[in-house]
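FIELD: query
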Amino acid sequence: MNSQKTLTNSRIHSILAMWLLCNCSFAQDTTKETSKPLQLDKLNGFAQTIYYSPGYEARAKDIAAFMERAGNFFKQEIQFIPKAQLYILAPKHWKDFAAKPLLDVYGFPHNLDSSRLVIASEDNDFWRSFLPPVDNLPPPLLAQVKKAYGNPDGSQSMMPFFDLLALHEMGHSYTAQAGLKMHRNWMSELFVNIMLHTYVAEKQPELLPALETFPNMVVGAGTAEYKFTSLDDFEKLYATLGMGAKNYGWYQCKLHSAAKDIYNAGGKQVLKELWTALKKHQEKMTDEEFINMLKKEVHPSVADVYLKWNK
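FIELD: result
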């Protein structure tokens, strides 16, 4: 188990640092739709604007179809769909479009602002770096990894997980464009994970292993190596990544697990109630007021994320 802890934690050092850096890009929001980039092709027939590197039309259609299905689900559940542009990029185009902190990190799905989302068109070394050597895994965990990330040829790929993260990032477009007040940094991240988990569980449950396995590995490895584990620390350190990249990775995976628990406790209705509450309550709230509101107007399981975080 100790070797597995080291194995898991060593692979989250950079991945979740990028989550934070990209979410902070909203500080310089430019939600205007741009004209078609000359070096990219445009995919028509979808609600969102889709650009892709030439030669990757099939990949672009797969991603666009997934986003379209999710968008239709959210439109029905929360009566809102954002205006967004997706850039599905080959390595040669990545540096022309990716956010500055990610120019040399091909593969991480991220927001440029509240309307533009960058996605990789192919498997890559960055994704592969988070796959643990299969020879080091205990049989139960090996079976989970193969189920979640296995390819027909016997190899593994983290593409299924990272493609789902694209929907996590799109969730930030929903909350930003709809004008929801998130109140807390942890709620900002929890909410988009609730969106992601709710859609997958309701409409594509076959993707749950891909969504759950990596966070389960991280959370299951324990907290011994982390200096910060409270939500108060997360709030104080979020904007500057003051908790450190590896520690931030644990927080994100914990919030993925929390979203799963919330869905299992209250079903898809929780997403609707939480959306409504965050749109309604624009006033400043103390921790006690915020948690009481979540408990009474949304679902006790959402309040429990704060109340039972370290239990």
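FIELD: remark
The longest strand covers residues 85-89.
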